Amino acid sequence: MLKIEKNTVQETLIVPLYGRKMCAEKFPDLYADRSAKLLCESLDYDFSAQEAKKDTFFYEFGALEAAMRQLDMMWEINDYLKRHPNAAVVNLGCGLDQTGRACDNGACKIVNIDFPDIMAIREQLIPAGEREANIAADLKDHAWMDKVDGTQGAIFFAAGVFHYFKTEEVKELVLTLSERFVGGRLIFDTVGKLGLKLMMSKTLKHMGIEDIDGFFYVQNPAQALNWSEKIQVSSRGYMLGYFDMKRKGIRPAHRILAKVGDRWMKMAVNRMEF
Ligand SMILES: C[S@@+](CC[C@H](N)C(=O)[O-])C[C@H]1O[C@@H](n2cnc3c(N)ncnc32)[C@H](O)[C@@H]1O
After folding, report:
1. Which residue among 92, 175, 240, 252 is the one 20 to 30 A from 274 at the CA level?
2. C-alpha span between 33 and 102 (Å, rounded)
3. Domains located in the chain, CATH noted
4. Is the distance from CB of 254 to CB of 220 less than 8 angstroms?
5. Which pLDDT value is given to residue 1?
6. Distance CA 263, CA 178 (A)
7. DSSP state of 242
């Protein structure tokens, strides 16, 4: 069994992983992938807190958040691969997420990047396959970019990762990517100021971060992400911008909360074309 330490940035991978497991169990019409369940079973991690809450309305909503985010990312990756079938599909802060494989068209190159301790666990549970590379790195040290072959296109995606970055750190990463991977695309999710306060501050506190000043949030993507005239920015609602969530088992109240999330918490999925 592989241990995930409590109260670390790395532990944040548990939330979306468990969310995807729950979603596959509760809402299989929306999200059918059972791999998260197998991964949860392979980890030495006490899931009792999650198990105790799993039938509550808000916890179910959290699971839907994890699934919708992955479905949104997959939509974008599949769209990019239509025109760049041999591109690199790069999962930034991958945790134990297998979106790259879920979008594998038989020709693309899959790259997964996370901190060394997470990649050591990932290597054991999900060893890199053919056309796949696992890179152990801190995303803030841009040296990892040397290892990505973007000659036939590159789509980068960061799911639930930039909330742990300062705005300046995201900007530096984005500008470097845009210079080095012209023709590439970056997809990432954001929340607004209220979303950061209500949804992220507790997680950051658990990691010993009391002061959330300077952490990345986006109120208005077109304005806030206007970092370079060479980058085209567009964005959609995170919960309902790609799919309407009208599926068996999803309650009308979940969809209402999804609207609140997109409209008031400014939950968004942003696309940058380099
Ligand atoms: C909320 S988890 C999301 C994991 C995955 N993207 C998913 O959707 O399941 C955040 C992930 O980002 C990784 N991460 C955060 N900051 C990072 C950094 N500076 N460099 C590399 N990975 C980082 C964490 O280790 C963790 O695996």
Report:
1. 240
2. 9
3. 2-273 (3.40.50.150)
4. no
5. 65
6. 29
7. S
**Closest Cα to atom 10 of ligand 1:** 161
Q: How many other β-carbons are positioned within 10 Å of the β-carbon of residue 155?
A: 27
Ligand 1 geometric centre to CA of 161 (Å): 5
Confidence of residue 207 (pLDDT cuts 50, 70, 90): confident
Q: How far apart are CA 119 and CA 126, in angstroms?
A: 10
State residue 185 phi and psi, 5-degree precision: -140, 145
CB distance 73 to ligand 1 below 6 Å: no
Q: Among 7, 18, 115, 165, which is best to mutate for testing ligand 1, by the most ligand atoms less than 8 A from CB?
A: 115
Question: In testing the pocket of ligand 1, which one of 73, 114, 187 has its CB within 8 Å of the most ligand atoms?
Answer: 114
pTM: 0.95
The CA distances from residue 60 to 11, 29, 95, 258, 270, in Å, are 20, 15, 21, 12, 24
Quote the ligand 1 centre to 15 CA distance (angstroms). Answer: 11
Residue corresponding to tokens 């996370």 = 114
